[in-house]
């Protein structure tokens, strides 16, 4: 398991009975987590000191209950490769339990930011990175802070606006980032026709989604052809490709098989896939939070 264990402003305090107790900066939230199938004693004081609690409905969805929680606040994360340049993320609770950030992804930010920094390219020829299904921009900011020129693509205008605000908060307002609201598949198809190439590709596809014009995405049907398509955008001396999955059926071994089948036979390099997770303070154990597949040259 790849562990995101360098957070100062975020912490999984405890887990029990389908829920996790988290500290986001100065505020404590309780959110549902389907991985938490154990019912251990809730001894941590935070269970009684929460600022927000997302209650899941038996009919699907759910709703927030707040206790002295601001509408919006920020936390910071400092990459190991960039000790003096913290990234700043704006947070706010919104539909379906989310806050606008997946902290476990810091394990991947550390990995690809190191690869980008090691290239040590001149400013007029930076590492080019494509971030697809890019959400609020955690990976975009990490890559840009490491020196990459990033193309950020997401079908949601609101998410792209949120990501731009995170970039401004992180001192990356002038960084070479292209912000695009687009259907990822159609964007990749156009980039292939244009002859565009990227040195690194990041994708965080949803289990199910719709593009700006109603395009349907079902990950079980779409990820294999999409990976084959997107691999055509990798430059001749590409550095990496990353796929994140929060879908139960796409386990690490599945990601590893797919990436290896598409890239290793063509380019060599190395493919790895593991669960990604977060340390739990109360138990000293690790909470699984999804899976990631990595290819590097």
Automatic annotation (TrEMBL):
For whether the record's keyword set contains Methyltransferase, the answer is yes
The UniProt entry, under Pfam families, shows: Methyltrans_SAM
Q: Which terms are listed as keywords in the entry?
A: Methyltransferase, S-adenosyl-L-methionine, Transferase
Main enzyme class: transferase
Give the source's domain of life in one word: Bacteria
User: What's a GO biological-process term for it?
Assistant: methylation
Q: What species is this protein from?
A: Candidatus Acetatifactor stercoripullorum
Q: What is its EC number?
A: 2.1.1.-
S-adenosylmethionine-dependent methyltransferase domain location: 84-211
GO MF, one example: methyltransferase activity
Under the heading InterPro entries, the entry gives:
Glyco_hydro_b, SAM-dep_methyl-trfase, SAM-dependent_MTases_sf
Coiled-coil regions, chain positions: none
Protein name stated in the entry: Class I SAM-dependent methyltransferase
